[in-house]
Amino acid sequence: MPPPSPAAPGQTWAIIMAGGTGTRFWPASRRARPKQYLPIAGDAPMLTQTAARLQGLVPLERVLVVTTEEQRSAVEACLPELPRHNLVAEPIGRNTAACTALAALEVRRRDPQAGLFVLPADHVIEPAERFRATLAAGLAEARAHGTLVTFGIQPTAPATGYGYIELGDALAVEQGQAVHAVRRFVEKPDRARAEAFLETGRFLWNAGIFAFTAEAILAAFRRHAPGILATLEPVVGDAARLAAAYARVESVPIDVAIFEKAENVRTLRIDYRWNDVGSWSALAEIGHPDAGGNFKALGPLAKLIAEDARGNVVYSEGDDLIALVGVDDLVVVRSGRVTLVCTRERAQDVKRIVERLGAAPGGAEFL
């Protein structure tokens, strides 16, 4: 039976991409419950916070969460009020182009005139009111001119872990927000190039947040990535056929498949607090130190005692007591039977442990 349609056409929808594996947040982040389902950036899971951030702009009945079949129960636990037909399960991960096409096709089934946002489930963005205002302005631009809108982050450092957007001409002001053409997208640069980008003042970080109408993004797929659309369009709503088709879909980011090729791309700036929470060290960027100068994300039963120890990032959801003496700038994570200890500057390398466990006999039980 097809899902119910909204009461009126042309409404605003949101697609939350929640199928990532979160390997840099191992051992708390596991295959069945990656970081987007964990209370890493506050008291609530990150997915729950992302959906709440949209309220007042997009009601939960028009929010679609795209995840994997394995993570279905994790979504339901985080968003128990999400209509079950709004949970879209990918048979296998095929990167963000396939995810976006699948979700846009599903939205079009329900509301052919829909405007929609696409955003990751695991970002920290504050204040929520300003974020909603930026999204609303971006969608107004997209509806008015049939454009594809991406939201760029005002850089705060010469980061090498993000792609960049080079601003073109300022074209308009929409609801108080400047709308720029996009001159080009640049893949992750080295340090020297990132520093040069910052000096020009013309570059933004690529946040992977988008606004467009369902009609415009599907037209862009038809022109720039026709194979993805031709494979998915006939099988949307048919779970059995979707599984077979999805295995044939190209695995490519939406930026590469569409945005780097399209001519009708626009960008709006996010110049307030944003963090993609890319590794355990990010807790020191999004949190506040305790009286001892450490950054902790602990469940109600966990405790930290620190003696002559500062700048450490500590995480536990259990009933652990973690004691630190004479150490600085470490990451200490307790999760089940696993303890992780590393320096904050090596936090990105946690994924290497996950890779080794995946290849080791018996390692899968810790993933």
Task: Give the structure's gist in a few sentences.
With 367 residues, the chain is α/β, with parallel strands linked by helices. It has helices at residues 46-54, 72-78, 95-110, 128-145, 191-200, 214-224, 226-232, 239-246, 254-259, 283-286, 350-359, and strands at residues 12-17, 63-68, 87-90, 115-120, 124-126, 148-153, 164-174, 177-186, 203-213, 265-270, 273-275, 295-298, 303-307, 313-316, 321-325, 330-335, 338-343. The protein has a five-stranded mixed β-barrel with strand order 6-9-7-8-10.
Describe the protein:
- By secondary structure, this protein is an alpha/beta fold.
- The protein folds into 2 domains: 264 residues, Spore Coat Polysaccharide Biosynthesis Protein SpsA, Chain A (Alpha-Beta Complex), CATH 3.90.550.10; 87 residues, no CATH class.
- Helices cover 29% and strands 28% of the residues.
- The chain contains 11 helices and 17 strands.
- Helix 3 crosses helix 6 and helix 6 crosses helix 7.
- The longest helix has 18 residues.
- The model has no long low-confidence stretch (mean pLDDT 94).
The major pleated sheet works out as: 5 strands, mixed, barrel
CATH H-level superfamily title of the largest domain: Spore Coat Polysaccharide Biosynthesis Protein SpsA, Chain A
- Tell me the CATH topology of the largest domain: Spore Coat Polysaccharide Biosynthesis Protein SpsA, Chain A
Give the helix proportion (percent range): 25-40%
Which stretches are poorly predicted, pLDDT < 50 over at least 5 residues?
none
